[in-house]
């Protein structure tokens, strides 16, 4: 580490001209940093409704909003009072609520029912288990040896298959990825062909049940949102609308992001990374702020992919080129110097880079 590093990284996460990724362990104040980043954006003159903050649970979204308001009430009551009427405009939500808002906002253009509803995880699990049970009882065509093998194992065989199917379903951010890549489930069941046929049957039944009740699950939301942003005829209009109304994107617990969720975020900020577009020409510098711990994810069962953390860092680094600093801090003393100490004194803040990728391991 160079001697200049402390100066360069002082208060990096509070500099609203920078895009930042912070990876630090549990208990290090990651969420606090995101809340203070949000406040710094407000202090810099950004309208509260032009900041999007993504969390991974409804509870976390509510807590983030309350944390921001509590800090303002305690430290900047005048700022809080001046923005009080705009508090309902705060755009803090889960990734799924964000995707749903996109789909509902452009439902007519996308040919979707504007009254669509999203089922919670319990309902989704119940429908899936019903589909698995019905599929196992019907024995889809295509691989009799596979089902004969299950029978010879008795109840244990059926339970093993049921668990495997549920695991496949939960870990896949997009079912098409499984159906088009049978090798992806070969590690779960030796007879991948039979398992794939059974999974396809389960998925067909599951989709019918959802359609009959006019419901979407979380996977549907992510996949439909991504298709709307990248493949649909309305993709340009949707991206333009997001760009027109958003200047800054913050994501909490980024290690819990799966590949498809990152693809959505990536697509939304594509023009920002280009350095072109109406924002730059108008003097606005959009930023991305990602915070998490790449060594800890509680949503691996839902397809979270910690490698996405590094991929995001690499992409932002390429985006900013030589103006980007990529730091990985492992020494606890250096962690104190670079991160904790600056929180007490911002007078020495100094950073000329246009973006900084800060990794605290």
From TrEMBL:
PROSITE patterns per UniProt: UVRD_HELICASE_ATP_BIND
Q: Which GO terms describe its cellular component?
A: cytosol
Keywords in alphabetical order: ATP-binding, Helicase, Hydrolase, Nucleotide-binding
Pfam families under this entry?
A: UvrD-helicase (PF00580)
Gene3D superfamilies in alphabetical order: P-loop containing nucleotide triphosphate hydrolases
Q: What's an example GO BP annotation here? A: recombinational repair
Ranges of residues in domain UvrD-like helicase ATP-binding: 3-347
Q: Which molecular function GO terms apply here?
A: 3'-5' DNA helicase activity; ATP binding; DNA binding; hydrolase activity
Q: Which PANTHER family match?
A: ATP-DEPENDENT DNA HELICASE SRS2, UVRD / RECB / PCRA DNA HELICASE FAMILY MEMBER
The molecule here is called UvrD-like helicase ATP-binding domain-containing protein
**Annotated organism of origin:** marine sediment metagenome
């Amino acid at each position: 580490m160079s001697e200049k590093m402390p100066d360069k990284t002082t208060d990096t996460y509070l500099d609203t001209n920078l895009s930042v990724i912070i990876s630090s362990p549990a208990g290090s104040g990651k969420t606090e940093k995101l809340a203070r980043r949000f406040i710094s954006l407000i202090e810099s003159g950004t309208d509260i409704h032009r900041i999007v903050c993504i969390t991974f649970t409804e509870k976390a979204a509510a807590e983030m909003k309350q944390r921001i308001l509590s800090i303002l009430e305690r430290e900047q009551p005048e700022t809080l009072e001046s923005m009080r009427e705009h508090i309902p405009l705060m755009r803090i939500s889960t990734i799924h609520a964000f995707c749903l808002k996109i789909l509902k906002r452009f439902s007519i253009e996308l040919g979707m029912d504007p009254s669509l509803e999203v089922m919670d995880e319990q309902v989704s699990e119940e429908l899936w288990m019903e589909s698995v049970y019905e599929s196992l009882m019907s024995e889809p065509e295509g691989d009799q040896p596979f089902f004969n093998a299950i029978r010879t194992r008795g109840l244990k065989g059926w339970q093993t298959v049921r668990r495997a199917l549920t695991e496949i379903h939960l870990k896949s951010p997009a079912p098409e990825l499984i159906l088009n890549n049978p090798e992806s489930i070969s590690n779960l069941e030796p007879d991948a062909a039979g398992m794939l046929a059974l999974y396809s049957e389960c998925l067909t039944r599951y989709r019918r049940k959802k359609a009959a009740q006019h419901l979407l699950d979380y996977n549907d939301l992510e996949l439909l949102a991504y298709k709307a942003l990248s493949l649909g005829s309305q993709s340009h209009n949707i991206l333009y609308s997001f760009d027109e109304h958003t200047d800054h994107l913050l994501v909490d617990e980024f290690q819990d992001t799966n590949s498809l969720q990152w693809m959505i975020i990536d697509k939304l900020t594509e023009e920002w990374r280009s350095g072109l577009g109406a924002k730059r020409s108008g003097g606005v510098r959009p930023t991305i702020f990602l915070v998490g711990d790449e060594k800890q994810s509680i949503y691996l069962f839902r397809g979270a992919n910690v490698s996405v953390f590094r991929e995001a860092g690499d992409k932002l680094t390429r985006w900013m080129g030589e103006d980007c600093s990529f730091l990985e801090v492992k020494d606890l003393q250096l962690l104190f110097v670079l991160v904790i100490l600056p929180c007490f004194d911002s007078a020495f803040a100094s950073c000329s880079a246009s973006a900084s990728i800060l990794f605290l391991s």
